[in-house]
Amino acid sequence: MIKGFKEFIMRGNVIDLAVAVVIGAAFTAIVNALVEGIFNPAIGALFDAEDLKSALILEIPTTSGEPAQLMFGAVIAAAIQFLLVAAVVYFVLVTPVNYMRRKAEEKRKAGIEEPDAPASELDLLAEIRDLLSEQKRAQVTVDAE
Q1: Where residue 59 falls among pLDDT bands split at 50, 70, 90?
Q2: What does the alpha-carbon distance between residue 77 and residue 84 come to, in Å, rounded to a whole number?
Q3: 110-144: string of b/e by CB count within 10 Å (b at 16+)?
């Protein structure tokens, strides 16, 4: 059981996911500070409120005397925060990675290999196939002798 756990932990994708979670948490703090410190107060000022969360509040009378509050500003603030996170992830992560992949694919199709470029999955599978074929031929030769 410990051996299996060690193999699980040592997989590259588990480490990559752990790094992504840590970086994502740190990145979330930056986006939250941006939204809460700049965008919410700026938009809240348009509605004559301290920030967006305290703007656009609709009070509904209840039988208990304490009015219920519908906080539309808080919903708008959450939507703005989501859009900012999505935009930053797209423009900072997705776009550059897609560009690099496209350039690497163009080089591969043109027959230009980068000296330190990691092998693609297709290249690795072809290499494994060739090694297995060689191993099988070697085994047939040994058995024939």
Answers
A1: very high
A2: 11
A3: eeeeeeeeeeeeeeeeeeeeeeeeeeeeeeeeeee
Residues 17, 60, single domain; the answer is yes
Contacts of 58 (CB under 8 A, 6+ apart): 69, 70, 72
The model's pLDDT over 80-119, given as tens digits with 9 standing for 90+, comes to 878 877 887 788 778 988 898 898 888 888 877 666 666 6
Domain, as residue range, for 130 = 119-145
Structure tokens at 74: 């808080």
CA distance 65 to 9: 57
Do 100 and 131 fall into the same domain? no
